[in-house]
Amino acid sequence: MKKYSLLYFGIFLMVSVHASSIHIQAKNAVVWLPQQNINGSVSDQTVKKVTVHFNDSAFILPIDIKHRFVISILLKLTINNIWVEAGSGQHHTKSDTIQLKLGYKPLPLIKPFATSKGNIIFLHADVKSNPYNLPLSFIWSDDKSNPAPVKINDYNHSQANFSLPSKQGDYYFNLTVISGNDSTNFKTMITRTDSIHCFNIETDHAGWIDSTVMYEITPSIFTENANYDDITAKLPELKQLGINCIWLQPVYQSHRGNQAYDVIDYFSLRTDLGTEQQLQYLITTAKSLHIKVLFDFVPDHTSVFHPYAQDVIDNNNDSHYYNFYQHTDDGAQYSSLYKKDSAGFYHYFWKQLINLNFDSEEVQQWMIEACKYWLKKFDLDGYRFDAMWALNARNNFFGTRLQTELKSIKPDILLLAEDKGERKKVYEEGYDAAYDWRTDTNWISKWSWQTDYDLLTSHTVFNYDDETKRGQKLRNALFSGDSMHLRLRFIENNDLSRFINNHGLARTKMAAAFMFALPGIPLIYNGQEIGCTNKIYSTKPVFKSTQSIQSLDKDSLFTYYQQLIKIRRQYKSLRSFNMHNLLANGTGAVLALYRWKDDEQFIVVINMSATAQPVIINLNQISKNKNDSLFFNDMLTGESFKSFKNELSLTMQPYTTTLLMIN
Fold first, then answer.
1. Nearest alpha-carbon partner for 282 in 228, 220, 223, 241
2. Domain spans in the chain, listed from the N-terminal domain onward
3. pLDDT for 589-615, tens place per residue?
4. What is the fold, at CATH topology level, of the domain defined by 301-355?
5. Are 313 and 323 in contact (CB under 8 A)?
6. Where are the beta strands (DSSP E) in 579-628?
7. Which residues contact 56 (CB under 8 A, 6 or more apart)?
């Protein structure tokens, strides 16, 4: 896709000054919808009509009683010139020419999906939009990576069918849609196990996501060199750690850099981290190691220094981009946090990060095209969407549109929202996973384990002053809100202070082990695996380009996280959504969980006390047979335990978590 500079397109359109003049309320711009409406007016009250020149054509428009007119045009070319004239002879007047450049190629959107009847699969092509209403042709094909080849009947129709082979695995089916001289590619999938499951865009997520261990990377502080090559060089060690998915914080052009959430160009890469070729090599290397790659995307706002915002500042509501931004208080959730700057832009906490207006279909298309651009360019495995709590509050329909657009291209991508995972609605709004945040509206990013807000200090259930209340507080966090969708689980991320700084090594290991035994997606933030103590938002490098990650580990945390990841990957019950609270005697600093999947069972016990705690768990909650003893192995320490009369007695050491597998 070509990029166009607003320095070129942002020339202010001034109409010719005549006794009778024509004013067009428009300026040169890059536009993100083919259908455009342009307002204009004529100062001469005797003029009843104007002639609109649109590229090589012309048409006449009437003038209303207020001497206004509206030009409605459908852009089919990349570059489009428009000007208006009226009258003749001495009364002839015309406007300057404006130029609208279409920022993308409008193509049909097709939602592919499958249905089954026994072993017979039916492929369907649901036409969601067809911008120019051109005749469409369809070609279905099976993917070469499929477990077995498939012969598709009626492959050149919108509906095709075939018999699914008995070999198990994920089957992908490609759909090529031809409209005029253009073609677009879509994809759907079917999973064959003991049964057949046809992927549903609205409700399903890909199987690989359930076993994901995610690793967040802040490229600007990853090493002292802050470049893609240093990240690439450490990917084998991340693979050795057990990571199978990396999340890169924003790589697009930003005003200030650093964490780079102040985007000024969604279609260009920031140059301080390296070249596009270097980023491509990073992604290719990750995929060769079977590591998925997520980009961080910022749809809620742009930098106030984005050219579109600057155009609004210069030209106010004559700017094509005026309605791209929020200028009024819409009364939406969290609107009490709005602040309005001197230029009329609305924002939340960050003055230079101004809200986009998602009531504008053009803004939606702009963001969707940017997501599709990088998805296709790098074959990404998903996105982490920044500040979705804010966008969803202002427009809770965009996510489902985004979901359809992206998963129709690649059904097995991950869509992770920075929004409240306790809120069931966020998953209905189009996202596969969300943050482990509470629904508290007064505290936007209330991490479920956090008790008090402090930017520099971590106050959690694990270091709560009254340790006898820690168990109940943790229990409330675990069993509150939605429990059947994926939450991103973490003890650190780019917006939290380092956990070890306020909890110490023992409690860090305790909390980490507990986190890896919970439903959801566990996250490691770069440096967490070596006990990094850098302050929040520090610009100090985390690693060194000349040393391995593990060589910087003073407390053997790297090998500890390796062990936790290995255990989680080995046992499906620790990845399942099945979780019950178990009643256990002792102080309020102890909590026990029952985790299971099919015939595999675990008991997870955490002691958040600074002293050893005797714990007795009544196993009648999970086993009604009082005559049989149960045997337990702690997967972390190798210790063995045996129940007696359906009771399990343990002595939990200070600040420890046990992962007890029931034999």
1. 228
2. 6-102, 109-199, 209-300+361-570, 301-355, 579-662
3. 999 999 999 999 999 999 999 999 999
4. Oligo-1,6-glucosidase; domain 2 (3.90.400)
5. no
6. 579-582, 590-597, 600-607, 613-618
7. none
pLDDT in tens, 9-30: 333 333 333 345 999 998 999 9
| CATH number of this structure's domain 109-199 | 2.60.40.10
Contact call for residues 657 and 510 (beta carbons, < 8 A): yes
Q: Which amino acid is at 162?
A: F
Region 6-102: CATH code:
2.60.40.10
Distance CA 385, CA 364 (A): 14
Longest dimension (CA), the chain: 109
In the DSSP assignment, the letter for residue 357 is -
The domain covering 209-300+361-570 belongs, at the CATH homologous superfamily level, to Glycosidases (3.20.20.80)
Structure tokens at 169: 């695995």
User: Contact 461/353 with Cβ under 8 angstroms?
Assistant: no
Q: What is the DSSP letter of 249?
A: P
Residue 180 Cα distances to 32, 78, 110, 175, 177, angstroms: 21, 16, 15, 16, 10
Which two tokens mark 68?
């206004």
User: Within 10 A of 180 (CB to CB), how many other CB atoms are there?
Assistant: 10
Q: Comparing C-alpha atoms, which of 229, 235, 242, 233 is closest to residue 280?
A: 229
- In CATH, the number for domain 579-662 is 2.60.40.1180
